[in-house]
Fold this protein.
Amino acid sequence: MRRVVLTVAALSLGALLGPAPSAATAATPAAAAGSAPAATTAAAGSAATAGRSVSTATAERSASAATAATRGSRAVKAPTGQEADGAARQAAWFARRLRADPVHVSDQIPFAHPRSAASRFAAQAARTGVPTYVLVVPFQTALDARELLGAVHRKVDRKGLYVVVDGTSGDQLEAAAYGVSVPAEDAARAAGWEMPSDATALDVFTRFVDVVRQSGARAAARASEAEERRLVDEKRPEPFYTTRGDRSVSSGVAGALAGGVPLLVLAVGCTVCRRHRGHGRGFLGYGVPLVCAIGAAVLVHSGAVAFAQGEKAVPSARPTAHDLQLRADRVAEGLRRAPVYQDPESPAALDGRHLTAVRERLSALEVPARLVVLPALADEDESGGDADLFLQRLHETLGEDGLYILAGGDGFDGFDVTVANYGVKLAAKELDDYGDWIRYGPEDSDEEPALGRRITALARHVEDVPQGPPGRPEDAGRVDEPADTSLPPVDSGAYRPAAGGAAGLVLAGWGALAARRRIREGTGLTASLPRIPAAWAVPEAGGRDAPARPRRRWLRRTAGRELNELAAAFAAAEGGLDKAARGHVWACLDAAVLLLDRQGDGRIDADADRGDLAAALALVRAGRAALGGSGRQAVRRRLCSVNPLHGTYEPAGRAAGCAACRAAAAGPDRARGLLLPGTDGAPVPYRESPGPLGLAATSEVRHLIDHVRERFHVSDVSG
């Protein structure tokens, strides 16, 4: 949008001034046409053609077209020479500044680049290797940089590299080499196309210096490549700086990683230990995943801090009080010499007879009146673009009462006239009622701005204002301090809430998985029971001895023997059992036979694996324990959660193991859980094995029986 405004403004200016044979008239439309990148105005046109002559011819045709477009509405006046006089006055001002110091930073942009920061531009200018003269000016002044450079060079009359930089944003950079061999125009093009939108004027100038130090061929190739990337490939450079909003997002992401990754590592590590080391208390136990989690936390935090250190905050100008006072001092000094002061950094808006008429008219007033013409009134100046605030500062600096009149503009839409009455006895309401034509200028864009006629009309209005109390404008306040663009530490702001949220999610997921596992284990506290170094754990009365890692041969032999014993005992005691006990024992026998003798030949199958053998043995021992009690007690009994081969136990509160395992848990020794082959053949806790004891996910005997029957599609026939 800014480019469109520039183009329209430049064409409008050409239409108002009319055709002229000078380079100034041709340069304005050329600047607008070539201002798409943040680079040179006429330089962009010259790079697109064979040389500067083609660019100038194109610009002249554009100016002629713009002039012709306005002839239908009004006659075009011949040039009077006033415009040339204004440009010469501007060039002479800058020439005097550059002869005193080769780097001049305007005092009108303290909140973009204050005068006190001129040394930074000087340091970069020294790298060019040739005499370099730099003007850092407001955006409006940089629009006509090509014409300005030529005029300034003629006034300075020294060989060297001349550069004009838009100090407000760096959107405009114009360079010309006079008597030195450097690729000025190609370097300006490359800097404009290569720089991101958040680059400052100093950034653009630094990149310009980097390119201008290269050979002409290399600079031209670099400019063409950058232009092609932007226009053809539509690839915009990555931003230079990180905003506070971006840092807040980065802090949130870093916090989420710092809070979630270590706990995730710990959860995965504990799961791996649980699968491969019994209940997670093998060699080093949970120490390895804990160390890994701590290491992950350190790595994530260190990585986030290192990444944040590579980010740069948006530069924030911190002008000194002296920087903020410079322009007011300059204007006040000028007003002490004459009642009309026009900014010398811009072409004079009042020249010749217009200036003379305004001076005479203001001097003829019975009250003191002073006029200040500032074409560059913008957010980056000491008043923040506020006319009342500027006039208040000017009055404080000058220290004299009177009518202070400001014709302030933004370089595009002419001038807005503001009047402030300090101590003059005029009626405030009537004084302020000087009309929109004087205040804002003509509504018709084709009408001549006629600032001189507007000020003359204002003087006539002042003569008609009745007397009143001495004027005292309301306090205009102070300009707002620049927004804080410094970046807070990455571990501040959203870091802790995000870390807590991520940690909470991981813990919730971990807890859900643990709850699911505990549900599968019934009321089991298997994982919390300690381990004993002995190979056997002594079961309670009616139970059996069992190793923690039984071999297949032992399981086959023991299961076959105890199955026969149970069958014989059941046959002998069947008449003395109640119906519930008899049904329960029969169900245990039936399920055990299904696991051991699928062939039905009265022998244990040769291919029976350790999971089936262990489940069958657990069922046989559960049936043997049920022979000595009532049916209700038999159904309530559970398999030992530490090692189901120990037999069953009577549930009591939250106890999860047989009496021997509970005794071991309370003592210095530790109970050893049953390990069975996992899916990969490695020993794992039986709950995680693919056998019936793992898949049944319960310590209740009846549930294990139901699981076995469902596996073999057998109905309950215990009757």
The chain has four domains: 2-231, 248-311+488-520, 321-464, 526-711. Residues 1-84, 277-283, 521-543 have pLDDT under 50 and may be disordered.
